[in-house]
Write a structure and sequence with these properties.
The chain is built from three helices and three strands; from the N terminus they run E-H-H-E-E-H. With about 60 residues, the chain is α+β, with helices and mostly antiparallel strands. The chain has one domain. It has a three-stranded antiparallel sheet. It is globular, with a radius of gyration of 12 Å.
């Protein structure tokens, strides 16, 4: 797995996208933010590539 496809846990994601946990999950539900990958019954993560695409879209196409 290359770094673009590595997985990030929620605390790491929230350091990159500075929103509250509640806002993050609301925006997943609305489709604005990418959905998590379920790794187990109580374990979720996000693909780094999905987060990078999100940042690019939030920055008007600029790479963050």
């Amino acid at each position: 797995m290359n770094t673009a496809d590595s997985l990030l846990r929620l605390p790491e994601v929230l350091k990159i996208v500075p929103v509250s946990r509640a806002t993050w999950y609301e925006d997943i539900k609305s489709g604005r933010f990418p959905a998590q990958v379920t790794l187990g019954p109580r374990i979720a993560a996000w693909r780094r590539s999905d987060i990078e695409r999100l940042l690019a879209s939030l920055n008007g196409g600029e790479c963050a």
